[in-house]
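Supplementary Methods, section 5.1.

A reviewer requested that the exact input to the structure prediction be made available. We therefore reproduce it here, unchanged from the version used in the analyses.
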Amino acid sequence: SGNSNITSNTVNVDAQDINLATVFNCQQTYCPPAPEPDTCLTTYYKTLRSNSYADIFYYSFLMRDNRYLTTTARYDRVVGSRNIVTAGLKLFDEGGNFIKGVNIFMEGASTLSWARRMDDKSIMLVLNSSKNNIASSTFVLVSDDLNIIWTRSLRGSASFTGNAADEADIHKDEEGNYYIVGPTPGFLGDKPKNNICKLNAAGHVVWAKKYAMDKGTFGPLAVTSSASSLYIITAGSGDGSASIRVDKNSGALLNSYNFRSTYSGSVYRRYAKFEKGKLLYVGGTSDNDAVFAMMVFDSTAKPVKMRTITNISSVRAASIQDGKIYATCHYFSGLSPRE
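The structure derived from this sequence is encoded cell-by-cell as follows.
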C-alpha cells in the first residue's frame, strides 16, 4: 500500500478533425441474425434474502471457474428512514450458491465508488475520499478469493475517476501494467482533458499525464491497448468526441482525432478492445435520436465507421471477442422497459 502525490505533465493535443466514412442506422439496413443461445452456463433463478433492510448488487463480474463476484451495498435500518450503509463484496459459484463475503472499510468508513474487472482472477476497487481539502482516489486490487493484493492512493489536481462512476476506466495490459484514465469535462474555461496514470504490476506509479484538447466537453471514456500503444476513446458534446493514441512506455502522444458524435449521458459504461490491427468500440450517441453506437478505429485511433441502433436507452454490459460485439441493452416497448 502507499500514497502518491501526482503532478501530471500536460500535453496540448491538436486533434485532427475526421468525418466518419459511413454513418447509418442498423434498423434501416441489414442486421445479421441473432447468435445462438448460450448453453455453456448452468441456468438458475434464485432469490437471496438477508436480515437487512436491503442488500443491493451493483457491479457483477464473471471470474474463473464461472464464479460470480459482485459489489454490494447493505442498508441496515436504524431509526425511521435512516440507514447505515455498508459496502461489500460477495462471491458465488456457478450455481448461484454463496461462497463468502467481506465488508469494505477505509479509515473507519465503509465506501465504494465503482469497480472494474482486470482479468478472471482480480478486480480493481475505487474508493474516493478527501483529506485536508485535497481529493484522493484509492485503488485496491482484490483477488477473486476476496483478498487484497495491493492498494494505491492518488492525490493531486488530475481527475482519474470522473464525475460519475462510469465516466472513467481502468485497463490492464498484457504485461501486467494498469492504466487509470479519467476525464476533465472542460467547463468554465478549463480545457477538456484525458488524465492518465500508469501503474506497474506492483501498483507503483510509472508516469502520469494530462492530454488537453482545445475545444469540446468531455464525458465517459473507454481505454484499451495494443502491444505498444494505449487507446482512449472519449465521448464528448458540443464539438464532438475524441480518440487518442499514446506510447505505453513513455506516455508520448502519437495520434489524436476529433469526430462528430454527441454523447448520450454518463449512466452506463463504454467498451473498447484492440483486435487484429483495429479498435472496436461500444458506446452511445444522441445524434439522430440514436443511443446505441458501435464504431471501428484503425491502428492509429482514426475513426473509420459507425453503426447506430435507435430505441435503446442504455447499454448494461458488453463484451468484444473475435471481432464480434455482444451487448445487453435496455429498450422501451410501450411503457415497459425490456432487456
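The longest strand covers residues 68-77. These observations are discussed further in the main text.
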